[in-house]
Amino acid sequence: MRLTLRILSILVIFSITGTVLAASQRKVPSYEKYIKQYSNLAIQHQKKYRIPASITLAQGLLESGAGQSELARKSNNHFGIKCHSDWRGGRVYHDDDLRGECFRKYKNPEQSYEDHARFLVDRPRYAPLFKLKVTDYKGWARGLQKCGYATDRAYANRLIKLIEDYELYRYDTAKGGASKPAKQPARVSKYTVYRTNGLLYVYSNGRDSFDDIAASLGFRVKDLKKYNEVPEDFPLQKGDIVYLEKKKKKADKPNYDHVVQVGESMHSIAQKYGIQIKSLYKMNKKHYDYIPEEGDVLKLR
């Protein structure tokens, strides 16, 4: 249903401001230290190899335990890359999927980062990833799991959670360490407003931002971000739902449960059904650190 701005403004008066769960979570200091230490290197590799800086940082965090794993500390291996038949460098042996597996050993972390980039660039199975936009971190995360980078069925979801929790997507557009640029006038654009299950929303066209949508429809940017439970600079992708009012505590019937797919996060699932993230965690008795794994069944009401 298409609504006029006048009707929208009346409906918005009755909306209640939500809570930005993701932005309020306490961040792990060792993770923040790791990001600060290696973000410039990840950005350089993005420019050189077209691998999203957010993906490089998230993989480094996940595979090395923010640089604290034994493999990272003793062998400078930050990405869990095994020897393989073509490796001619240093070697070290650790238990992984099997006992005593061979992993690559480097002189310093910079060598590990360089080898990680070449590992992805030089192997044909990862070629489809380089057809994606450098800002499509979700597509990259799903692709890495699909191409077999790791055996963990929740690998893509873990990467996406790290990227969104620590706002690593900002480094994909070189905003990670820079001050925020002055706001530009919003583009004049028209949105079709939909109402499903009692909630008003629009779809992102993939080229817009929360600022654009807010300016076009007469909302305050901070309200839209609260309704959608996202932090500052959260990037919209084509087809993303943007709610114009506070989400519900449970999904409407007949949505009783959801089977987790590759690349989904608790936030994306909550957006799909118009549920508040904290309610989704609570209904499923999950701690915030929980990462949905492909095949998991989550209650929606």
UniProtKB/TrEMBL annotation:
Q: Where is the signal peptide?
A: none
This chain's protein is named Peptidoglycan hydrolase
**Which keywords accompany this UniProt record?**
Antimicrobial, Bacteriolytic enzyme, Hydrolase
Which SUPFAM superfamilies does this chain map to?
LysM domain
| Cross-referenced PROSITE patterns | LYSM (PS51782)
Q: Which organism is it from?
A: Parabacteroides acidifaciens
Q: Name one GO molecular function term.
A: amidase activity
Lineage, broadest ranks: Bacteria, Pseudomonadati, Bacteroidota, Bacteroidia, Bacteroidales
Q: Where is the LysM domain?
A: 256-300
Which processes are annotated in GO (biological process)?
defense response to bacterium; killing of cells of another organism
Give the matching InterPro entries. Glycosyl_Hydrolase_73 (IPR051056), LysM (IPR018392), LysM_dom_sf (IPR036779), MGlyc_endo_b_GlcNAc-like_dom (IPR002901)
Q: Name one Pfam family in it.
A: LysM
